[in-house]
Amino acid sequence: MLSLLVLVLLLGVLLLVCKCGHREAGLPPGPSTLPFIGNLHIFPTQHIHKFTEWAHKYGGIYSLKIGPTTAIVLSDPSIVKDLMERRSATSSDRPRMHIGDVIHGGLNIAFISGGDTWRTLRRAAHAVLKRPSAALHIPIQQAEAIQLLNDMLNAPEAFYSHVDRYSNSVILSVVYGKRAPRKDTPELVAFFQVLHDWLSILEPGAAPPVDLIPALKLIPDRWAKWKRTARRIRQAQRRLLFGLLEAVEDRVSRGRENGSFVEQVLAKQTELRLDREMTAYLAGALVEGGSETTSAYLNSFILCLVAFPEAQRKAQDEMDRVVGKDRLPTLDDLHHLSYVRAIILETHRFRPNVPLFIPHAFSASEKVGEYIIPSGSTVFVNAWGILHDPVFYDDPEAFVPERFLLTTNGTKPALESPTIPSPNLTFRVGRRSCPGIHLAQNAININVMNLIWAFDFQPDVHADGSPIQPDISVSAYTKGIMSTPLPFKCTITPRSLNKADIIRREFEEAASVFDKFE
């Protein structure tokens, strides 16, 4: 009798193991699974363009099994709009990420699961960063952009580093009212170190799969290096965030406000229902996100100017006609620069900063056509696949700004409709839209116009003087959620001596703006 009971139990366990990782009936199709692990052995951790290859094979919605959990990948913009916008009430959650909760205390607006805390943070961010409020930060964005021009004029070979400094300094200025005038500014160095450590612990193999196997959380600290590392990152991050917060509080107490985001939040803390912890982590998340995305975009933009000289020439010709050669462009000029606007949009489409969105999670089951998306499923929006889909774009692997002169979204003219993709897709998807979109767009627009107006960007050269063609392939970009060009070389020269003199003069005049943020 006992032997029979043991046999039944063993068969039951075997059945569960065999079913674990198996694609349940009703799920969208996808790659073949293995018992227990499902598709874990082939799940892309770096080369995320594999998601687009599978979309070509399995369609605009397909599924992957990661052990017992289900992942849904969306590469069809009409399904994205339906699920992530029309049904955002159930699609706006995040998968649980224990390590992130340890480091951020469950207060990082980008990764936090849905609920009252996330809704409070979201309301606060949108209240303070809406378009009219974002316009208040244009003076410091313009001043920082002028320093970028001046830095590139003086040391063009270090442009990549200058762009990184710019993107971090401008978001530090906007959020905390404290800029980073040099690459070695302590706050800038600390932010990049914390961000590097945070991203490193998320890399595959750096920590055990505690979200799939919760029992791993019980391992004592002395045998779990990842726990000790996570705590060290948390402590370093808290020192940085609360140090910056205290600096703002001190400035406010002395009547030295400069209009920063944190100042506005502190003034409305009761109204926004934010405590000090929430304020610190909300501000930190905005700096983390704003630094990386802006620098990734601008370095991609420069790479595209080098790789596609005809597009650069057309943009410069338009800039000279509209703005002239005796002043820097302003945001008011952009309305009259149709080709420059087209280049901005085509750079977003051609090399999106976030080719695969931070995953969402469904808080309730949903149905899409004949398919079921179970409650708790992880959902990925494949922005790269959408923005490179030949169904929507002629020659999608080519850099063609002219496509945005033909149609608003750059798609084939016959396909213009509410469900076609937008090049700004990486900013907007349902309730998880980027709260700093207006800040980011202003920063991008200002710098794109300035760089086109000021400089010629040409390929680096071999010893014999022949040009070195820049690598614009996906292999020349970082792997992972954030995609940015790997450091590359190019030749940057001012378009005239007069323009160089204007840059130097404008930089001297920007000192009056910088004074409030030093």
The unreliable regions are 4-18
The number of distinct structural domains comes to: 1
Kindly identify the CATH topology.
Cytochrome p450
Spell out the helices and strands N to C. Answer: HHEEHHHHHHHHHHHHHHEEEEHHHEEHH
Tell me the total number of β-strands.
Answer: 8
Structural class: alpha+beta
CATH architectural label: Orthogonal Bundle
Q: How helical, in percent, are the residues?
A: 40-55%
Radius of gyration: 25 Å
| Largest β sheet strand count, sense and barrel closure | 4 strands, mixed
The CA-CA distance between the termini, in Å, is: 81 Å
The largest beta-sheet arranges its strands as 1-2-6-3
Short recap of the structure:
With 518 residues, the protein is an alpha+beta fold. 51% of the residues lie in helices and 7% in strands.
Describe the structure.
- The chain is globular.
- The chain is 51% helix and 7% strand.
- The chain is an alpha+beta fold.
- The model is unreliable at 4-18 (pLDDT under 50).
- It has a single domain (17-517), classed as Cytochrome p450.
- The chain has helices at 2-19, 50-58, 77-86, 88-91, 98-104, 116-129, 131-135, 138-154, 159-176, 186-202, 225-253, 261-267, 269-272, 276-307, 309-322, 338-350, 383-387, 403-406, 437-454, 497-509, 511-514; strands spanning 61-66, 69-74, 360-361, 366-368, 371-373, 378-381, 455-459, 490-494.
